[in-house]
Amino acid sequence: MKMKTTLMAILLSLTATNATAQCGIENKAFKSGEFLYYDLFFNWKFIWVKVGTASMSTVTSTFDGHDAYRTSLITRGNNKLDKVFVMRDTLLSYCDLGLSPLYFRKGALEGKRYYVDELWYSYPKNNCHLKMHRIEHTGQHVWKDAEYKDCIYDMMSIFLRARNFDASSFKKGQNIPMPISDAKHLSNSWLKYRGKETFKVEGTNEKFRCLVFSFIEREDGKNHELIKFYITDDENHIPVRLDMFLSFGSAKVFLKGYKGVRNPMKSKLN
Q: Which of 16, 100, 107, 111 has its CB 3.0 to 4.6 Å from that of 24, i.e. a possible disulfide?
């Protein structure tokens, strides 16, 4: 009886591993201890003004008793931006070491509204099951469940996945499907590969050879470009610039510093 129980536990463990593995990707882009720092700029009366900072960190941790990557992104607007739009966002993601998503949380103060999104992932019968929780700005708690045959991601886990794409075979204009969910709905979204460009970091002499992508979402029968981002054309695929098209205007994010990167910065031009 004990042998059957042990065998069953092993089989269940293997099944769970295979289910999450299909939603993962081999990680070659980052390691535990990577920290990225950014400056945030907003177009104020045709002038780009620094209005805040952002930082992103990735460390090894545990989630539900299993080894995992813990990634956090913190965005803070300063008093200049507060006059236009208050922004205090904190995003947290746990993925297993194969980069399959396990948990996501976003706590956001945007304007006068504060809300929280949470997602818990599980993989029954090779499907992707989402347990969703949203705290509305009114304080109302909304719970939902959804299950999909395809892999679903969130804003953070899709970012980690995209950093590990091999773009050597991508063709300019190519679309890569990116199904992303929050605690309210699943978006019809994708990445469009824009090709390669050289980017000079604002206020420095640093230049990087970059791959350029647009994140596009289809809503109400129309395609909306939400973000255009530039990532280093090397194995790190570090974002060095993001152009964000927001409901209240345009914003840009520029890399300010980095440490703990996994691979040599071969895209950096001297």
A: 100
Question: What is the β-pairing status of strands 207-219 and 186-200?
Answer: antiparallel
Q: Which helix (H) or strand (E) holds 41?
A: strand 34-44
CA dihedral 155, 156, 159, 164 (to 10 degrees): -140
- Cβ-contact 268, 207 below 8 angstroms: yes
Say if CB 163 and CB 178 are below 8 A apart: no
Q: How far is CA 63 from the centre of its chain?
A: 18
Tell me the pTM. Answer: 0.85
Contact between 177 and 128 under an 8 Å Cβ cutoff? The reply is no
Q: How many CA atoms lie within 13 A of 130 on its CB side?
A: 29
C-alpha distances out from residue 231 to 6, 74, 161, 167, 242, Å: 46, 19, 13, 11, 9
Q: Give tens-digit pLDDT for 213-251.
A: 999 998 888 898 988 999 999 999 999 999 888 666 678
Pair 241, 253: CB distance under 8 Å:
yes
The average pLDDT across 76-91 equals 73
